């Protein structure tokens, strides 16, 4: 069957489906979100906001700008960028006009943006949702709509300086998010390719052998070797040689040793990669992050477009939080090309922008993607486990009253506080009970209550009550806003 | 064949297509974004961020939580909610599975969220992109992907208190954004319907006559009347009676007068609306916003789902900024149901959530939508017109050097500053020229340069240069971060 025959056949079937009523034949209304998607409730949003703030603060500290691109691109923009995974792209219906697809990641739209605007230098971050028609049933709850959180440096610079900054950023973000101890594995596509060459892997098997090596974080060496030899047809000798290399871990010392290695040193590619790896580690020393970074020859990463350094950060604490994160199916392995426990990954891709430029002009890029869905999931579980309630509002004070017929007075005071910049709530009831007003404060974590009564109005004061201690003190109305600011300055 | 058999067959065929290469045959390539969409560059993003911050600060001051919903919904969720405009909904391709559509606004997903989670009380904001297959050629550059910025209060409360808060919020946001003078028109769906009834409009013509009245902000009364009489078949007498009412504007006094009006007082609906209008104005007085709010009987607004108060804010200054905003086609008229110059709109919709509830349980809602694309456009033009450059980064200092071979020292100091929380940039070059380092600061608005040289290193100091004044002063390395913080505290 040819592609156009398939298209014809599919069109015929869909027409038939429409005729017999399609999904709309069932008139029973389904109250749900689309398969593989979810709403974020206010609590999840509060956590999400905190995580984003930490990450954006770090990106800005490093002088990054931000851009945004549309949620859909011309279908052809995405074509040929994701290999096998292209089948996971969401297409829009052909309603007469351009053929469109939802973005699959932020990297390809970024490369399209650079080429289209002829930008040759930029340090940018982009936080947005991407879409993949993964099978949630098969992958245990993986989302079809999820956030990516990317930082990239584009431009022709002296080697390894931007690459080192990306690793510094991963180090800063993971430290600040307090996710527990972590390690950042580093390798280089050129070292991998050179290694395959000197171990006797045929050129046309580099990719498939590389993707088998990528499984080493989940499978034993024996199983990986067996896949290489029995499924991929590699000689046992070559496999054993690879086995020796991929067990190696170290730092600058390992790069130096491998540069002297009788076999490795025969590959020009490997030597270029190893020389850059030495340089990278010297910058990482200056950035004081070598405690967490390890040069690991088993790190392969899936994506085709990497051309140089690659890296991946993993959480090393086997706390229950991690286990359940995996059970929740928030393992980003296939999505981000990162392993179980992995929370960030990236690398250098010097060829991608050139694929979009009409003249093939290259713009070297290096970037990192934070596995933000996994971070959310860990944060949510930490919040569940903690005694402290997650606040979903930032309200500082509730304007309340114990007596009847004071709605107007409550509204007047509320407006005064809003105008003074105080985050203020008031109940939308004529005569609410004091107890229900206090209960709302307890429930939503509002720390202060400004209570009005006939006496307070006469005296020109407000009774300011601290919710947790139940202390009450009269504050003159003129000083109320300042007093509230003072008492909630730590919120 | 049944629907599920078709789905199966389609899935099989698509899998086959993916295996044999799919659409990847065509090689000719178009470098553009999808029709009606655009990228946001860093400058636009900086402006967008400032506008969002102002608006979110206001929403939070009023105690609002935030939620998020997926970018696509089941097609049936959107069906029957938008009348004629349903043809503008983007459908996703049937790739075997649920039929999906991109969201058309944030209100319907909000109602779906409330019904699905059985939420009866919430004050929430939601800022996100929505999608409409409008014809950009016909509407001069209207976007097919654009932001909505919604604030809604759901729940059964005493009348008009949440409604008044929505108007207070519009007042606060428009004041803080400094868009020039504005007015907020208010009316009530019940007053409109009552007015139509007492003027002798047949029941089945309420909607179509209402949509003609809605054109009064763009057309003269003569033209509107002619449309009513000649196109919609209304009697001239009825049209003239409507004409008398829709020319009325006022405040609480007008509501009182109309309650005494011989004709109006015959309509129960109108009286209910007018009584609430009086109540609304009494709350608006407490909130001190009556200077900008006007009860205007010509305000109709398009959307079907409104059941009570409706409102719309317009900018009243005829500054060039407004004119060009309209020329840019950012007139949100059809999109938001608001008029030229309109920057916010909303109203009460007590029936929408019930459409999603299996038992039809109602959750009364009132909300407001800020016409954020128009605000962006005005802000962008203000920025263009102003001498002050829009900064796209927040970098406080650039670590630079005048001498060669100091890359390592620059990187070391940069890391020190990052670790101290200072937003710092450094050039990714071994030996950049001092001039090009200073030029970068000029270009991107970085206020300070920390210059390292052999002498400074020996003395344990850094030369701190203020870019605009070119003043230089030696600062001890230990005090550098503090000094930078002090000097950039106003940034």
TrEMBL record, chains A, B:
Keywords: Aminoacyl-tRNA synthetase, ATP-binding, Ligase, Nucleotide-binding, Protein biosynthesis. Its EC number is 6.1.1.21. GO terms for cellular component: cytosol; mitochondrion. Coiled coil: none annotated. Pfam families: HGTP_anticodon, tRNA-synt_His. GO terms for biological process: histidyl-tRNA aminoacylation; mitochondrial translation. InterPro entries: aa-tRNA-synth_II (IPR006195), aa-tRNA-synth_II/BPL/LPL (IPR045864), Anticodon-bd (IPR004154), Anticodon-bd_dom_sf (IPR036621), His-tRNA-ligase (IPR015807), HisRS-like_core (IPR041715), HisRS/HisZ (IPR004516), HisRS_anticodon (IPR033656). GO terms for molecular function: ATP binding; histidine-tRNA ligase activity; identical protein binding; RNA binding. L-histidine binds at residues 105-107, 132, 148, 152, 301, 305-306. Residues 7-379 form the Aminoacyl-transfer RNA synthetases class-II family profile domain. The keyword Thylakoid does not apply. It comes from the Eukaryota. The keyword Nucleotide-binding applies. It catalyses: tRNA(His) + L-histidine + ATP = L-histidyl-tRNA(His) + AMP + diphosphate + H(+). Belongs to the class-II aminoacyl-tRNA synthetase family. HAMAP family: His_tRNA_synth. PANTHER family: HISTIDINE--TRNA LIGASE (PTHR11476:SF7), HISTIDYL-TRNA SYNTHETASE (PTHR11476). This is histidine--tRNA ligase. It comes from Oncorhynchus tshawytscha.
